[in-house]
Design a protein that fits this description.
The protein is an all-alpha fold and 99 residues long. It contains four helices and no strands.
């Protein structure tokens, strides 16, 4: 599917926008992940496995970076490191795996 195709402009995009504005906030990430997989897997479904693998690795690396930051989690949000603070060897290794 390409951005200028009839299927994208008149079916896929309106459906995704409708879901984006009607679903509760906690379901938006899952909906956007599914829409992303549907869009990229439209013509070659075999790439869906690669996208799922990549998304899973990046999610787990993000969780590991948050854990290695050593900062407390407050209200369920991931902590941000203060600017200028050096990164540990573990954080650099996790970032290298993600890349």
């Amino acid at each position: 599917m390409v951005f200028t195709s009839h299927a994208f402009l008149f079916y896929f995009l309106p459906l995704v926008l409708l879901l984006n504005y009607t679903l509760p906030f906690r379901w938006l990430s899952l909906m956007l992940l599914c829409a992303n997989l549907a869009f990229y897997g439209w013509t070659t479904p075999r790439w869906i496995l690669l996208l799922l693998f990549s998304a899973t690795v990046d999610y787990l690396c993000g969780r590991a970076l948050a854990h290695l930051s050593g900062l407390p989690r407050d209200q369920g949000e991931l902590p941000l490191l203060p600017k200028g603070e050096p990164r540990s060897h573990g954080q650099r290794a996790v970032l290298a795996v993600s890349m």
